[in-house]
Amino acid sequence: MKTIYLAGGCFWGTQKFFDQFAGVISTSVGYANGGTDNPCYRDVCLGSGHAETVRIDFDEQKLSLADLLEYYFMAIDPTSVNRQGGDAGIQYRTGIYFTDGDLLPEIEAFMAEKRKEYALPLAVEVGKLENYCDAEEYHQKYLEKNPGGYCHIPERLFSVGKDPE
User: Fold this and answer.
1) I need a labelling partner for 144 at 20 to 30 A (CA). Which of 30, 90, 120, 136 fits?
2) 10 is an active site residue
């Protein structure tokens, strides 16, 4: 099992998006790489510097990191600075964070290839996870608990990982 942390705008939709893929073992939403330990949602909204982030535990035998990152790029605008969809602010930035340094060469190679596909510079941070704490329980699996809740990710992307019937 491997773990990666992906910031992709509002974490509600980002979590729902990644939960659909075979090989994803578990996800949780939280706050990463801000200036304090253990912020609450209010702190994050008031500018603590944390990014809304999804922790993804995955089985690399079933889902490669490269495939996971390819899916990630489907769900974000990688050239948008501190904004995804209608959400704006530093908490909605995009980022790929890791705790296992062995993942860095693969992440860097992936990003180098992606840079060739875009005319604008990529705004996706890549770096070591500096800090992370789980968000409040009501944020976990939010869109499962609140069908029809706000999401910046288009509905059609929630069936990318499903087999056609």
Assistant:
1) 90
2) yes
